[in-house]
Amino acid sequence: MGRFLQIAGLVIGLAGLVLQFCITVPASMEAGRSLLGSIVYLFSFFTILTNIGAVLVHTSLLSSSGYAWLPAFAGRRMRAGVAVSIALVFIVYATVLAQLWQPQGLFLFCDVLLHYVTPVLFVLWWLVAGADGRTRWRDISWWMIYPIAYLIYVLVRAPLSGEVPYPFLDVAKNGAVSVAVSALAVTGLFLLLCIIAVLVDRGVSRIRASSVR
Asked: What's the distance, Cα to Cα, between the start and end of the chain in Å?
């Protein structure tokens, strides 16, 4: 089951990312951005970056030389961190962002793949095969670097580019207080997911150990 979920996650995740690139960049250029600006715009989404991380984890572990090729992505800390991050993608999109726009056609298809299908596949894979009981509370400090660094990037880029990937991070429209509250809420949710991940990892390990006896 773990192998099946890993291959499915890799194939669907890679297909979703490639298709998203192929439809977003031309649409972005039609909207007035340059080619480079369109590519930067696409890779400014937390969803895209996190799905790339999930694909790299799957690839590194499926490759016969995975540990030599991408040791950072094959490690237990990265596996759990990506599981937390992609769970955040699912939750925030399903509860907040999905209500803000109505994609059609291929955009809708990519939305479903990258916001629902790949997160579910990755978290299921992590529960079945990726979790090994070796996560530590100190790992949370490493996982938190990703969303905080992303937030800093978005807020620094916003006045330079005049745009943000997510509406709730738009200081110009919502004000600094509103953005701060939203950022704290999402960061708090991420921290909660980190705590749950450590507890679940240890619980899954105990269940596996007891089933072997």
From this structure: 21
Give rounded-to-5 percent helix, strand, coil for the chain. 85, 0, 15
Within its chain, how far is the Cα of 36 from the centroid?
A: 23
The rounded Cα 57 to chain-centroid distance in angstroms is 12
Q: How far apart are CA 202 and CA 85, in angstroms?
A: 19
Q: CA-based Rg of the chain, rounded to a whole angstrom?
A: 18
d(CA 180, CA 169): 8
pTM of the model: 0.92
Would you list the domain boundaries of the chain?
2-212
Virtual CA dihedral for 183, 188, 190, 193, nearest 10 degrees?
A: -160
46-62 and 2-30 helices cross at what angle (nearest 10)? 140
Q: Give pLDDT tens digits for 12-28.
A: 999 999 999 999 999 99
* DSSP state, residue 130: I
Query: What are the tens digits of pLDDT across the range 178-209?
Result: 999 999 999 999 999 999 999 999 888 677 66
Counting every residue written for the chain, the total comes to 213
Percent of the chain with pLDDT over 70: 92
